[in-house]
């Protein structure tokens, strides 16, 4: 079994357990259900930098990245740096995140927040809304077209933006539909962990222009972003490059300053 299959198998069990303990009616009582979401896609279209900065303590590919920080401080730092949005890992077992991380980030900043999670069930979308997300991620590698349609439409009905992540042409072709806002190309193969930003370049022309194009993973220099912009990318998801430093907010600020220069 590859790592992605393992993560999904664990996720199915986790979601079933949570469903039996915390009913949907309880999630819907969250005050955050009444909050109007902010569209990340719209902000990215208007931004000249388009950075989505991630909070990620560890990952299956790198093990420990940074366990010493408070998500609130990271969120405030990113917001002050001028990022367009923040991605918060909520998977516990493989990434060391939690829904509480999302909640504390929400309490600390106004910028759009992406729930970074392996979504397989509508229940997780209700959780995303209840804990303050504005955007959800769907991963084409683990969903069929019908699931992508049902989940993305459910998210849209909650007022959430949808970022659909692909890694190859086949995943892209099966996924194109109007209930998606952003198309993300993951430069990291989630099955082998190989990283190459050429993946973004290769797929860029196959993404219809009505979707905001986002390049994800393995981005560590402004030169790469300047290059990817020529291929129509307007969003850039960066985790490790910021999180491995002592002050991710300060690193993001420095990065954005360089990008604007
Ligand atoms: O830390 P990086 O290489 O900058 O990558 C960030 C982000 O793209 C990556 O964490 C990611 C992209 N898609 C995912 C799906 C699940 C978990 C994590 C991810």
From TrEMBL:
<keyword id="KW-0210">Decarboxylase</keyword>
<keyword id="KW-0057">Aromatic amino acid biosynthesis</keyword>
<feature type="domain" description="Indole-3-glycerol phosphate synthase">
    <location>
        <begin position="4"/>
        <end position="254"/>
    </location>
</feature>
<protein>
    <recommendedName>
        <fullName>Indole-3-glycerol phosphate synthase</fullName>
        <ecNumber>4.1.1.48</ecNumber>
    </recommendedName>
</protein>
<dbReference type="InterPro" id="IPR045186">
    <property type="entry name" value="Indole-3-glycerol_P_synth"/>
</dbReference>
<dbReference type="GO" id="GO:0004425">
    <property type="term" value="F:indole-3-glycerol-phosphate synthase activity"/>
</dbReference>
<comment type="pathway">
    <text>Amino-acid biosynthesis; L-tryptophan biosynthesis; L-tryptophan from chorismate: step 4/5.</text>
</comment>
<comment type="similarity">
    <text>Belongs to the TrpC family.</text>
</comment>
<keyword id="KW-0456">Lyase</keyword>
<dbReference type="InterPro" id="IPR013798">
    <property type="entry name" value="Indole-3-glycerol_P_synth_dom"/>
</dbReference>
<dbReference type="InterPro" id="IPR011060">
    <property type="entry name" value="RibuloseP-bd_barrel"/>
</dbReference>
<dbReference type="InterPro" id="IPR013785">
    <property type="entry name" value="Aldolase_TIM"/>
</dbReference>
<keyword id="KW-0822">Tryptophan biosynthesis</keyword>
<dbReference type="Pfam" id="PF00218">
    <property type="entry name" value="IGPS"/>
</dbReference>
<keyword id="KW-0028">Amino-acid biosynthesis</keyword>
